[in-house]
Amino acid sequence: MPLLSVPKEVAVGTAVLGVAFAAGVLAGKRYPSFIFGTPSGMIRKNSPLRQYILDHSLREHPILKKLRLLTADHPHGRMMVSCEEAQLMANLAKLIKAKKVIEIGVFTGYNALSMALVLPDDGRVIACDINEDYAKIGRPLWKEAGVEHKIDLRIKPAIQTLDELLANGEAETFDFAFIDADKESYNEYYEKCFHLIKKGGIIAIDNVFWNGKVLKPRKDDLAAQSIHRLNEKLLRDARVNISMLPVGDGVTLAFKL
Ligand SMILES: C[S@@+](CC[C@H](N)C(=O)[O-])C[C@H]1O[C@@H](n2cnc3c(N)ncnc32)[C@H](O)[C@@H]1O
């Protein structure tokens, strides 16, 4: 006796679809987004699965949570790093016993605070941004968390700060870099961070999916073009080992060899 009784047409139709799908997978075909979710295969920000991930893995410091909620009310709040991504980077920083961190693109400072919380007392986050107003939102919370002294905010174009660090003899002294500012400059940021990072250090590059636009970067989308070019370059960059992870809008971790 069948466990489920379905009309014959439905059963046949389902079987045909199943065989076609399996054959397609075996042939390496791509399937439309309704099968896997978003075009880039990301987990949607407000999906039940994302909520499940947060409910079962996020261990957010109460002041980080305060900053996240404060940032969510900001008109540009969507620019904030995803909290699970910040937690992943803080865990990695702790694992490699990081002391010196560079962050390119600070916004309200959620990730800067997350990093500062796991650094030793003499650790430093060199936090680069061009807009001091954003950091003014986070700074009182950095202070409340007792880590303001670990965050060295440099308000000027990040390229300039990176060049100053290099000119100051700080090449190969950093443990971790997070690239999360203007996408058109990603390659330059990567190259300069590569020189600043020690062997065994980590460079994390955010938004490597660019909301799926890297799949087919339009000619007039300079950000998508730039990210896609760097993704292609990293695949072949023998100076690093890499992992591209579907966390947030995609993050690539480059481990300097
Ligand atoms: C995506 S947000 C950074 C988010 C942040 N990492 C966080 O933890 O939420 C990008 C930031 O890059 C900054 N930015 C844009 N162009 C820049 C540049 N040339 N140099 C430094 N910062 C820049 C913006 O002001 C903005 O605050």
UniProtKB/TrEMBL annotation:
UniProt GO molecular function: O-methyltransferase activity; S-adenosylmethionine-dependent methyltransferase activity
Pfam families reported for this sequence: Methyltransf_3
A GO BP annotation: methylation
Keywords: Methyltransferase, S-adenosyl-L-methionine, Transferase
Signal peptide residue numbers: none
Highest taxon listed in the record's lineage: Eukaryota
Keyword Methyltransferase: yes
Family: Belongs to the class I-like SAM-binding methyltransferase superfamily. Cation-dependent O-methyltransferase family.
Protein name, entry field: Catechol-O-methyltransferase domain containing 1
The organism of origin for this protein: Geospiza parvula
